[in-house]
């Protein structure tokens, strides 16, 4: 066993492992990190879409709801905008990154997101939408208006 050939083969094996092992470890680590990042992004996207899909139903005519929502929106110009077409804009970058509409059937009015833009690979505006929903719900409850909420579907479209 004192043959130099055995030692040379052992040294060659260590050198080959030293060359290829770090690349393999780096690749497998990077792919695992990418999978985890995609999983977290998909989970966050699902949560955001669920929030944006949640609708507030106010049991009052549209004119009453508009009188309720307009002051809230006007008090926070950095977050919300009254749009010229009767909708409300939620700002992330632009004043109309997400557009809120009031849809009335005469006795009830639904406040819902009509559309939302994606920035940085994710839909934006969910935090401000949640805040607007909470403010409108609180104001409506204080005015004696019955409010219900319809949870959104978490579709990853």
CATH architecture of the largest domain: 2-Layer Sandwich
Radius of gyration: 27 Å
> Tally of extended strands?
8
Given the structure, what is the number of helices? 3
User: Structural class per helix/strand content?
Assistant: alpha+beta
Biggest sheet, spatial arrangement of strands: 2-3-4-5-1-8
Q: What is the H-and-E element order? A: HEHEEEEEEHE
| Mean model confidence by pLDDT | 86
What is the CATH C-level name of the largest domain?
A: Alpha Beta
What's the number of structural domains?
2
The percent of residues in helical segments reads 40-55%
Large-scale geometry: rod-shaped
Q: Per DSSP, what share of the residues sits in E-state strands of 2 or more residues?
A: 15-25%
State the end-to-end distance.
66 Å
**Describe the biggest sheet?**
6 strands, antiparallel
CATH topology of the largest domain: TATA-Binding Protein
Unreliable sequence segments: none
What is the compact description of this entry?
The chain is of the alpha+beta class. The chain has three helices and eight strands. A hairpin with a 2-residue loop joins strand 6 and strand 7.
């Amino acid at each position: 066993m004192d043959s130099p050939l055995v030692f040379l083969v052992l040294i060659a094996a260590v050198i080959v492992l030293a060359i290829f092992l770090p690349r393999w470890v780096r690749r497998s680590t990077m792919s695992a990190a990418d999978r985890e990042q995609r999983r977290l992004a998909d989970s966050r996207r699902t949560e955001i879409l669920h929030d944006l899909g949640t609708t507030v139903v106010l049991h009052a005519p549209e004119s009453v709801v508009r009188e309720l929502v307009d002051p809230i929106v006007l008090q926070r110009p950095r977050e919300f905008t009254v749009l010229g077409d009767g909708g409300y804009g939620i700002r992330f970058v632009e004043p109309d990154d997400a557009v809120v509409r009031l849809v009335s059937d005469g006795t009830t009015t639904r406040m819902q997101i009509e559309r939302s833009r994606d920035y940085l690979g994710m839909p934006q505006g969910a935090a401000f939408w949640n805040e607007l929903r909470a403010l409108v719900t609180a104001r409506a409850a204080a005015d004696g208006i019955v409010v219900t909420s319809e949870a959104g579907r978490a579709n990853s479209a």
